[in-house]
Amino acid sequence: MDRGDIFSRPDSKWTEGKGPDADIVISSRVRLARNIKNMPFPYMLSEEKEQEILNAIKDIIETPGFREKMGTFYYIPLNEIDQLEKQMLVEKHLISPQFAQSKGYKGVIVREDESLSIMVNEEDHFRIQCLLPAMQLNDAWVLANQMDDILEQTLEFAFDKEKGYLTSCPTNVGTGMRASVMLHLPGLVFTRMGYQIFSTMGQIGLTVRGMYGEGSEASGNLFQISNQVTLGLTEEDIINHLTSVTLQVIDQERNARNLFLKEGKDQLEDRVWRAYGILSHARNISSQEAMKLLSDLRLGIDLNLIQGIDPTVFNNLMVATQMAFLQQKGKGEMQPHLRDQIRAATIREKITKKNGGHESC
Amino acid sequence: MDRGDIFSRPDSKWTEGKGPDADIVISSRVRLARNIKNMPFPYMLSEEKEQEILNAIKDIIETPGFREKMGTFYYIPLNEIDQLEKQMLVEKHLISPQFAQSKGYKGVIVREDESLSIMVNEEDHFRIQCLLPAMQLNDAWVLANQMDDILEQTLEFAFDKEKGYLTSCPTNVGTGMRASVMLHLPGLVFTRMGYQIFSTMGQIGLTVRGMYGEGSEASGNLFQISNQVTLGLTEEDIINHLTSVTLQVIDQERNARNLFLKEGKDQLEDRVWRAYGILSHARNISSQEAMKLLSDLRLGIDLNLIQGIDPTVFNNLMVATQMAFLQQKGKGEMQPHLRDQIRAATIREKITKKNGGHESC
User: Fold this and answer.
1) pLDDT tens digits for range B328-338
2) In terms of CA atoms, which chain B residue is nearest residue A268?
3) Which of A139, B52, B256, B313 keeps 20 to 30 A from A322, CA to CA?
4) What's the superkingdom here (chains A, B) (predicted)?
């Protein structure tokens, strides 16, 4: 099983941190749910059928010409990797936490740069995902759509003229699309302006969540905004609506940062430098504290209060300091205390590599 | 009025940090209370008499041969210096906080290196003080005694054959001596072994206090141990008793540090490096937090967990980060916030000067 270096490096395309509004938008994601016509949904699928679907996908990525058009993909059968590796895929946002726990013939195909992937036999037969850095929702949609078209050349999807694509969960019926952006919003959190903004999202058909999807807490001031409604709208409607709301949130975050910088620059500088001081020297650090301090540091970089540190350190460490990647570094299962030590070492190495921070004034 | 550089540098002899057990004993102090025979105690002294006493001291330090024997002294009349300068003398432990607030003709004579001084017209006519770095109680007593002898060549002190030296406050009657050591006891604090030790001090005639004397809290894990009893003992008894108890406390502190190092090295290393990280990067720091972190850092230096930082940075910053020295640096009265900024800058400068810390492993 060739799987490239997916399990050896924490970087993905989306952690590159390059693109429009990369100071606020960490990543853009589009996910399409698709099911094969006249085939039971995964939760009542026989093992035989599961294998059939997996084989269909394998055939497609091995089709002559596919690679030239879509790039190199790796096929990763879930029952052939261990729990640690599954967790790494979760931390890279390539599979869902639920999928990592599930049994049976399931798998994921992943493009070399990890921007494009398909979960096979999760809640739906296929979950096509495109995950790009920064504000690139439309590009993500174009790429996911392209993959969808390729699948449709071979497979016939369950589709209803009235309802659209049929999915295992009724909330996905219609476009089968979930589009989302992950935003770094320290300004809105610090100034408490965020509460009001987030509380109105439901009214305009959007949902706000923490970094690792439904039910997860917002850690490191990271928020995911996604569409709630998939029915009665076109894909372009969804992308345009989410884009327009996101641009407004970006605007408000910039205002909040400027306000904070104007009213509390001293306080902010202290906060940013303390974060740098601790991150570059601590010997033990919990995931929660690391995310908090990395968020402070990233804000300081974005506001030019600290120089000489690559802002993408933040994006990269978001993945590299998660559990599975630390366990891999520590060669297997470990006590939380040891994990906190390896996390601290990983952060120190990454942050001080570039000759440390320099003062702005 | 020549006053050397007493008000321009925070360093004193006692902040040098050199001498026996300097890793635990910050300073040793001996103070002798003396009053002129047949002269009312200071609280009922006329201005005329106050001036008379001040002049007597001035005459002595200007006597031919005095300088050769005892060194260069400066005479500082309290009514000719401002409140900030008085506070600086308090922070250097050259005068008491009460003395800084008092009115009338009062003054202090201070040896160039600040190891020897005499407060004039405080609670008693003279308070001879010798303040040395590290565990040098006996040397401090010898030097204070020498100064006492010189004064007695010219002045006749109030002395009772039965009681000994008579003093304004009855608790000082007898030897008129207060001997004390300032100890850095993070090990006894962290392991909570200190409570028991300190609580038994009263039973053996000793008192434990914070860094700035009676009623002051122990900040930065600094504790002052002094004799309670001045009557019915010789000066040598007092010095020997305090020395012997201090040596036991030093022993227990060393044990506590070793225990902590053995049982919680990881935790200790993290604590030390975080202290270094914050001290060398924070932009605002309160006096209390600074003392706490400086104590952590000092412990790390003493336990060789961090290298390349001069341990006396701690002693020096204990004075340099106090209010008056910061205000002087900031050119006058200032808001607490600004004071915290200047404190942080002072610490950063001092700590990172020597090329920062290096890892021990």
Assistant:
1) 777 767 788 88
2) B283
3) A139
4) Bacteria
Determine which of A271, A272, A274, A361 to mutate to test the interface with B (most B C-beta atoms within 10 Å). A274
Spans of chain A below 70 pLDDT: 1, 210-218, 332, 353-361
Q: What is the pLDDT of residue A1?
A: 61
Q: Are B31 and B129 in contact (CB under 8 A)?
A: yes
CA proximity to B227, closest of B244, B243, B205: B205
DSSP A166: -
**Which residue of B278, B305, B307, B355 is the best one to mutate when testing the A interface, meaning the one whose CB has the most A CBs within 10 A?**
B278
pLDDT in the model for residue B313: 85
CB atoms under 10 Å from CB of A236, counted, come to: 11
Summarised one tens digit per residue, pLDDT across range B193-234 is 888 888 888 889 999 986 555 555 568 899 999 998 878 889
Query: Quick one: residue A182, left, alpha or beta (phi over 0 = left, psi -120 to 50 = alpha)?
Result: beta
Residue B206 token pair? 């000793």
Distance CA B314, CA B183 (A): 13
Q: Are B196 and B203 in contact (CB under 8 A)?
A: no
Residue whose token pair is 């040395």: B132
State the Cα–Cα distance between residues A267 and A271, nearest whole angstrom: 6
Q: Is B300 on the interface with A (CB under 8 A)?
A: no
Average model confidence (pLDDT) across chain B:
90
Per CB-CB distance under 8 Å, the chain B contacts of A289 are none
Length of chain B: 361
B347 touches A at CB < 8 Å: no
ipTM greater than 0.90 = no
| In the block, residue with structure tokens 């002899």 | B13
End-to-end alpha-carbon separation of chain A, Å?
Answer: 53
* Distance in angstroms (rounded) separating the CA atoms of residues A196 and B171: 65
B162 touches chain A (CB under 8 A): no
3-class DSSP assignment, residue A145: helix
Cα separation, B329 vs A137, whole angstroms: 54
A282 closest CB neighbour out of B273, B341, B344: B273
Q: How far is A183 from chain B (nearest CA, A)?
A: 27
CB contact under 8 A, B273 and A266: no
DSSP label of A40: -
Bridge partners (DSSP) listed for residue B25:
B183
Question: Is residue B265 less than 8 Å (CB to CB) from chain A?
Answer: no
Best mutation target, B263, B272, B274, to test chain A (most A CBs within 10 A): B274
Task: Return the closest-CA partner of residue A122 out of A144, A110, A106.
Answer: A106
Least confident span in A151-160, B81-90, B208-217, B270-279:
B208-217
CB within 8 Å of B47: residues ≥ 6 apart = B104, B105
pTM of the model: 0.86
Residue B147 annotated as part of some ligand binding site: no
Q: Which two tokens stand for residue A85?
A: 């590796």
CA atoms within 13 A on the CB side of B66: 19
pLDDT of residue B211: 56
Concatenate the DSSP letters of all residues of A232-296 into one string.
Answer: SS-HHHHHHHHHHHHHHHHHHHHHHHHHHHHHHHHHHHHHHHHHHHHHTT-S---HHHHHHHHHH
| Calpha distance B130→B13 (Å, rounded) | 10
Please provide the DSSP assignment of B298-333 as one string.
Answer: HHHHHTTSEESS-THHHHHHHHHTSHHHHHHHTTS-
Query: If you average pLDDT over residues B143-164, what whole number do you get?
Result: 95
Q: Is B209 annotated as a binding residue?
A: yes
The mean pLDDT value for B288-300 works out to 94
Tokens of B253: 């502190």
